[in-house]
Amino acid sequence: MVNLILFGPPGSGKGTQSANIIQKYGLIHLSTGDLLRSEIGDKTPLGQEAKKFMDQGLLVPDEVVIGMISSKLDANPDARGFIFDGFPRTTAQAEALDKLLALKKTSISTVLSLEVPEDALIKRLLNRGLTSGRSDDASEDVVKARIVEYHNKTAPVADHYAKFGKFKKVKGDGTEEEVFELLSKELDELVGEKVQ
Length: 196
Ligand code: B4P
Prior knowledge:
Blueprint (H helix, E strand, L loop, with lengths): L1 E6 L6 H12 L2 E4 H10 L3 H10 L7 H14 L5 E5 L5 H13 L6 E6 L2 H15 L7 H15 L1 H7 L4 E5 L4 H16 L5
Parallel strand pairs: 1-3, 1-4, 2-3, 4-5
Bound molecules: BIS(adenosine)-5'-tetraphosphate.
C-alpha cells in the first residue's frame, strides 16, 4: 500500500496536483478541505462548527478532522493507497494518522512538500477568491491569517516526518504541468502506474 501526504502552505497546489495524481496512479483522495466544505454545504452540525474557524482563516479543531479521516479510511478497506491532501496540518493530527495507519498495518510512504513563495500564494488565493465563492479566499487579511496558521501549526509537521527520512521538497511555483512532472518523478518508482 502506498500512502502519500501532499504537503505545503495554503494555495501551494495540493488540491490541483491531487487531481492529477489520482488520475495517473489510482490512489484514493482524502482532502480534509473538501470534506469540510461538503459538510458546510450540507449544513451539518459539524459543518456549521467548522465554518466558524474556516471563515477566519483558522484551522478546525484536531478532533473534528481526525474523526473524519478515520471514518474515510474505514470506508475504503481495499484501497491501493491514499493521498492525504491538507492533512495532517498539526503534529497532533500527524501522530493520530500514524496510529490509524499502524492499526491497518501500514504507514506513510512519503511526504512531498510543494514549495511556493509567499507572494505567489497570496496572489493565487485572492485570484481564486474572485470566482470560487470561498469565504476563506475572499480577503487578504483572511488569506494572510491562513499563512500565519500554517507557519505556527502546520510547518512543524515537516519535522515530524523528516525524523523518519520521509520528507521531500518539490518546487511548486512552475506551471501546473511542470509541477506535476516533478511530482511524477518522485512517484513513478514508488507507486507505479495505475492498474486499469
Ligand atoms: P484546503 O482546502 O486544504 O486548501 P488550500 O490550503 O486552500 O489549498 P491548496 O494547496 O489545496 O491549493 P489549490 O490546489 O486549491 O484548506 C482550506 C481550509 O480548510 C483551511 O484553511 C482550514 O481552515 C480548513 N482545513 C482543511 N484541512 C484541515 C485540517 N487538516 N485541520 C484543520 N483545518 C483544516 O490551489 C490554490 C489556487 O492556486 C487555485 O486557484 C489553483 O488553480 C491555483 N494554482 C494551483 N497550482 C498552480 C500553479 N502551478 N500555477 C498557478 N496557479 C496554481
